[in-house]
Amino acid sequence: MSDKIYDVPAAWAQRAYLDDHGYRAKYEASVRDPEGFWAEEGKRIDWFEPYTRVKNTSYDPGHVSIKWFEDGVTNVAWNCIDRHLDARGDQVAIIWEGDDPSESRLITYNELHDQVCRFANVLRNRNVEKGDRVTIYMPMIPEAAYAMLACARLGAVHSVVFGGFSPDSLAGRVRDCGSRVIITADEGLRGGRKVPLKANVDAAIAKAPDAEVDHVIVVKRTGGTIDMTPGRDVWYHEAADLVTSECPATPMNAEDPLFILYTSGSTGSPKGVLHTTGGYLVYAAMTHHYVFDYHEGDVYWCTADIGWVTGHSYILYGPLANGATTLMFEGVPNYPSNSRFWEVIDKHKVNIFYTAPTAIRALMQGGDAPVLKTSRASLRLLGSVGEPINPEAWEWYYRVVGEERCPVVDTWWQTETGGILITPLPGATRLKPGSATRPFFGVIPQVVDAEGNVLEGACEGNLVIADSWPGQMRTVYGDHERFMQTYFSTYPGKYFTGDGCRRDADGYYWITGRVDDVINVSGHRMGTAEVESALVAHPKVSEAAVVGYPHDIKGQGIYAYVTLMAGVEPTEELRKELVGWVRREIGPIASPDLIQFAPGLPKTRSGKIMRRILRKIAEDEYGNLGDTSTLADPAVVQDLISQRQNKK
Ligand code: WTA
After folding, report:
1. What residue numbers does the annotated binding site cover?
2. CA dihedral 277, 283, 288, 292 (to 10 degrees)
3. Ligand 1 atom, smallest distance to 511 CA
4. 157 sits in which H/E element
5. Ligand 1 geometric centre to CA of 464 (Å)
6. What is the 3-state secondary structure (H, E, C) of 445-472?
7. Its GO biological process terms (predicted)?
8. What span, in angstroms and rounded, lies between the C-alpha atoms of 371 and 363?
9. Mean pLDDT computed over 604-618
């Protein structure tokens, strides 16, 4: 924990929407009278029919129900595009920067309108209607944004699957939400390497014969050779030639679903997090406005992938609802060189830059020179998201990248929360490196102990949120019981985040990381159970237990303890084979960093694996193993320690 404090820079105090006093007053109002507060804030988007009811939410055990603006009628695509056309039709909506630095495109709001309408008509011609689910498995190209907005325009529910997921993972997600249409590209391009997206879609469909996919729409990105199945597959550019660029926006109830996004939890298969229309958009737009202090004309860049919630809320929906210019980047931070981020900032005169700690740590390892050879004069604000940022990385980001003139907003939130919940506001909040600082408007964080007692003042415990905010997820797609069980049963009557945190004497929050069986690898959420079930699916593996361990760049790495079938030799070759196996089963982000072959795992007498002990061994903290006397075979622990794999 760093005890440094950075004051709000003078220039920021002048220009920002809110100073500290403004923040406190507005926060106070938001929790004193949520109805009145959100009745006003809801007006930041346009409604076809205004709402008369604002908040209708219950966290009651067994009856969790969340509705905001429930009788309002609107359309997300209309708010992100059409309503801006009179005032800013010729303003750039999306700056697209390709993987190769010689490729970029500027898309105005007028062009965005044409493209999205065209895409919507292509979907309409394939009988996509309001409420239908559409899976999007795309690289970071403008067509990914068009496809999402086209779904929103028609009222179809998009489910974006990150392009790094395997055919198996894709198949599971297509099947779970029953989508009959998949939108993809021939290949993706990242860091000069091709990603076989269409081939993965083919493999996914082959793996899920019950999935009933009628149409695969393929955007041409690289021109690489792919197979097209006649009757099922169609090139997007050919289909788009046959339709007009006129398409009305479907009136949507505020509580009609907007999208599903699958995310990992502690148990079972990934959950389909469901977000709806009105509250989500109000919250995404409002947080984007205040947290990034977005002003007319600013160029804003969030480096996330559209396959994660950060891409949904802060590349697409929040910025476009605000009529912003948002940059979409196809590539990676270190291609063609470690200066790429900073070169893109100079090329497009980026003012606001939002990235992840893992990228900052990786670039920091390359030293200051790749940063210093660029100007970054346009930069005014820096943001961080996805995992706790260690004070060293924070300081480097602030000092070297931002030259001590750009505040760093460390934003804490989750797929489930739809938008940012705990964050500094650049003109209002004194910064402490490593702290996400204070709650956003309408958000009531509490710190509780294991028994659920609410702790006061400076304390440490689990982070819960006491009442609903408009951007909150509404359910797990197709499984409301699981939704209530996962988030509202640990501490009845409160939303449990799964994160641990500390609150200091100034009321600042310091997120310490997940307290459940979720690991955060380079800002990507991975359920240990998912990796374990991939491992045990291998014919030579009898049992597996997966935990996280501290990793210099990734934040957390994946440590797998594997027990082999009787008679199987533990070889280096098998270790590699298992890593490749998990990559193929789930995707490269799930690759175990370390695999330890363990003849036995520490278990209680009732046969439960004691993960606490495995975590300690992976973390290299043997001194503190706790009580091992309840183990069925305490000798196992010494064995594991002596065989421990070294980090690197
Ligand atoms: C972690 C990403 C500390 C946290 C938006 C959370 C963070 C999980 C921060 C959600 C932060 C995200 N500081 N931890 N600023 N931001 N996290 O669903 O553990 O991919 O529960 O959403 O990331 O990850 P998700």
Report:
1. 190-193, 310, 334, 386-388, 410-415, 499, 514, 522, 525, 536, 538, 541, 583
2. -170
3. 3
4. strand 157-160
5. 14
6. EEEECCCCCECCCCEEEEEEECCCCCCC
7. acetyl-CoA biosynthetic process from acetate
8. 9
9. 88
Summarised one tens digit per residue, pLDDT across range 215-265 is 999 999 999 999 999 999 999 999 999 999 999 999 999 999 999 999 998
The per-residue pLDDT of the chain, averaged, comes to 96
Mutate to test the pocket of ligand 1, among 387, 514, 556 (most ligand atoms within 8 A of CB): 387
Handedness of CA 386, 387, 388, 394 (dihedral sign): negative
- The whole-angstrom separation of Cα 499 and Cα 446 is 12
Please state, in angstroms and rounded to a whole number, the distance separating the CA atoms of residues 617 and 626: 12
Atom of ligand 1 nearest to the CA of 436: 15
**Residues lining ligand 1, CB < 6 A?**
263, 308-310, 385-388, 410-415, 436, 497-499, 511, 513-514, 520, 525
Give the single-character DSSP code of 401. Answer: I
First vs last C-alpha separation in the chain:
25
Pair 266, 518: CB distance under 8 Å = yes
For residue 423, the CA-to-ligand 1 centroid distance in Å is: 12
For residues 349 and 272, give the distance between their C-alpha atoms in angstroms, rounded to a whole number. 37
Query: Given this model, what pLDDT does residue 514 score?
Result: 93
CA distance 642 to 640: 6
Question: Which atom of ligand 1 approaches the CA of 410 most closely?
Answer: 15
Mention every residue, 6+ apart, whose C-beta is less than 8 A from residue 269.
172, 176, 530
Nearest to 216 by CA among 181, 170, 245, 187: 181
Identity of the residue numbered 302: C
- Is the reported ipTM for this assembly greater than 0.90? yes
Q: How far is the CA of 554 from the centre of ligand 1 (A)?
A: 13
